[in-house]
Amino acid sequence: MTDLTPVLSATWGAEKSWTLDTYTNHGGYSGLKKALAMEPGDIITAVKDSGLRGRGGAGFPTGMKWGFLPPDDGGPRYLVVNADESEPGTCKDTPTMLYSPHTLIEGVVITSFAIGCSHAFIYVRGEIIHVYRRLMKAVEEAYAAGHLGKNIHGTGYDLEVTIHAGAGAYICGEETALLDSLEGRRGQPRLKPPFPAVAGLYARPTVVNNVESIASVPAIIDRGVDWFTSMGTERSKGMGFFSLSGHVKNPGQYEAPLGITLRELLEMAGGMREGHQLKFWTPGGSSTPIFTDAHLDTPLDYESVGAAGSMLGTRALQIFDETTCVVRAVMRWTEFYRHESCGKCTPCREGTYWLELILKRLEAGIGTQADIQQLLDTCESILGRAFCALGDGATSCVTSSVQLFKDEYDAHVTQGCCPFDHSASALFTYEDESDAPAIEEARV
Amino acid sequence: MTYDEQTLEGLNKDAAEIIARYPVKRSALLPLLHLVQSVDGFVSPDGIAFCGRQVELTLAEVSAVATFYTQYKRRPNGEFAVGVCTNTLCAIMGGDEIYRTVSERLGVGHDETTADGKITLEHIECNAACDYAPVMMINWEFFDDQTPQSALNLIDDILAGRAVTPTRGANTVASFKETSRVLAGFPDGRADEDQGIGEPSLAGLNVSRDQGWTENQSWKEAGK
After folding, report:
1. Is the pLDDT of residue A240 over 60?
2. Chain B residue with minimal CA distance to A244?
């Protein structure tokens, strides 16, 4: 069995875990001390050698991203941390910032020093107020302790950090939309190239990294590349959060080496809720094609999950048991994508609109066989044709669920209703009276 | 312009502080819109004009940004924004029924406000607390592991003017305006308030402790 490896979460249970004192008492900021004694280029090399890949979903090698910055031209370059955590199922960056904000701040200082940045930004989604309070406090403490500001640790290096609140838009998790939003615009993605490394924030060289990626940097520098690469698989190194949610006994954050399996994680989480069996799950958030119990032993690393037809994404494992209607689940995700589509490109804007209407008809029991085919056709019109990954992501659950659960879609058509009792999926008992309004709404 | 002199003076002072955080003025627009909401309770026409003057944009340009983001309200928001997560995971775990129950009790639907101006109800998208499903947010504080009954109790408390306490967050929920001011980047001194860490956040740590998997923890010891 694979051991869990709590690193970022190690101090979460400590008294006042979010304070500088607690963090420092547990060895915090020792990575920064080491980093400031290194050549910036050597830090980049270390992160490259560690094999750390972006923890925000795309899995792009972090050190390589830093290496794409053009040579210093004397002008500013920026680090922007993507803390706009909102991929459905994803709930790892929020507790990281809530319970140990200094892990992120330390990572920000080391990364900024490595890439030659003197003003870093942390773009936090606006809907998590206490996280925002804790981050602001942590930045204040870090300034007072000399980890931020002028002449950090007496090295002559200066860094300013600004915490910036978003205002409710999933699309701002897309790195170029995030940059537009940070510039005070509507959060719509930009055409790439140029990539942010060349022309990012204010058209200057910019590194955009996820919270967990940046928060992993202090440990890599402090404990070394060999320690980090001792965890994980050949091409998916290190540890990461596996966030279990849904019909499991003990949902929560499990920090483990990449390559662990759902079977192992489920065992640690006490299994499925009493008397129920696994039906389907997302390996990495709602934008990754769904898996079933056939994938219990698929190693959760980038390569293996990809080879099995999905994506590791954000390791947000949303787990559903046999009481769950897959059409209802997919309909809800699709409502989300329709709502969050920024409207910039036609395939995504129009495609998600129609997917939602069709799925509502099907779930309400007034859909037809032709509707099921239309779902697939519409997905084909979106996939690979949308401006950014949001459109592609919207098709994942639709296409994969029709592939895996065609019978269930058929049953909605032949029975003229949803064959499931929705109340059976809930964690409390109630009378399910939801069908009538659903049909009403779907007819509109 | 209908801001009185004192309000305007405060706004100007705060705006200057916000703008100073950024190398380029326009970046201040999102926090400025949060600031306007902290005074008016929504993004008012006056507020749009104020932001426009601060960052040198037209009313149309500011409006275009304000209408893109769901946290900016176009009508006066209730003192408490009550959001029930009805994205897939929470919906299936019971969020749909919680939303239905709350909506029925309040007599308002999505993005509508009770007649007394206390509560604006919303069904919200994933709020990054899936391991605590079904989740409700009140003025963007976490209310984890909800049931229809626990949600109704909270609603009744708010309607009766009693303070409510998040499951993870500050000791009491701040008002919509106060919350907006924090989002504009002005600390309210409540970062150290705490309701204890939730079990799901400790789930992996608990297993590690029970199994004695300490080898990888020497960098930082687990707190428990």
Report:
1. yes
2. B131
Mark which of B38, B66, B94 sits at the end of a domain.
B66
> pLDDT at residue B213 above 90?
no
- Tell me how close the Cα of A186 comes to any Cα of chain B, in angstroms: 5
Backbone angles phi, psi at B154, to 5 degrees: -65, -45
Please give, rounded to a whole number of angstroms, the shortest distance from the CA of B4 to a CA of chain A. 27
- Looking at the structure, tell me whether residues B109 and B161 fall in a common domain: yes
Q: Which SS3 state, helix, strand or coil, does residue B69 take?
A: coil
Domain count, chain A: 3
Tokens found for residue B18: 């916000």
Asked whether the beta carbons of residue A94 and residue B87 sit closer than 8 angstroms, the reply is no
B109 and B166 assigned to the same domain: yes
Determine whether the interchain pair A422/B100 forms a contact, defined as Cβ–Cβ distance below 8 Å.
no
Question: Using an 8 Å Cβ cutoff, are B83 and B127 in contact?
Answer: yes
Per-residue confidence (pLDDT) for residue A432, from 0 to 100: 78
State the pTM of this model. 0.97
| pLDDT at A367 exceeding the cut of 50 | yes
Among B139, B143, B206, B216, the residue to mutate for chain A (most A Cβ within 10 A): B216
Confidence of residue A1 (pLDDT cuts 50, 70, 90): confident
Secondary structure letter of residue A4 according to DSSP: P
Q: Is A346 exposed, middle or buried (0-12, 13-18, 19+ CB in 10 A)?
A: middle
Boundary residue ending a domain (A265, A290, A321) = A321
Gap from B173 CA to chain A (nearest CA, Å): 10
CATH number of the domain that residue A332 is part of = 1.20.1440.230
Alpha-carbon gap, residue A222 to A20, rounded angstroms: 18
**Does B215 contact A3 at a Cβ distance shorter than 8 Å?**
yes
Residue in B27, B170, B201 closest to A12 by CB: B201
For residue B164, the distance in angstroms to the closest alpha carbon of chain A comes to 15
Bridge partners, residue A123, by sequence: A82, A164
Mean pLDDT to the nearest integer, A315-322: 98
Of the candidates A223, A270, A263, the residue with the CA atom closest to the CA atom of residue A248? A270
| Phi, psi (degrees; rounded to nearest 5) at B108 | -130, 155
What is A239-289 written as a DSSP string?
EEEEEEEESBSS-EEEEEETT--HHHHHHHTTSBSTT--EEEEESSSTTS-
Inter-chain contact A128–B127, Cβ cutoff 8 Å? Answer: yes
Contact between A348 and A189 (Cβ < 8 Å): no
ipTM rounded to 2 decimals: 0.96
What CATH number corresponds to the domain at position B90? Answer: 3.40.30.10
Contact A5 B213 (CB under 8 A): yes
- Closest chain B residue to A76, measured at CA: B23
Chain B residue numbers with beta carbons less than 8 Å from the beta carbon of A252 are: 131, 199-204
Cβ pairs A/B, distance under 8 A:
299
Contact B213 A3 (CB under 8 A): yes
Question: Across the interface, do B70 and A169 touch by the CB < 8 Å criterion?
Answer: yes
What domain range is A399 assigned to? 326-443
Residues 6 or more apart whose Cβ sits within 8 Å of residue A293: A277, A278, A279
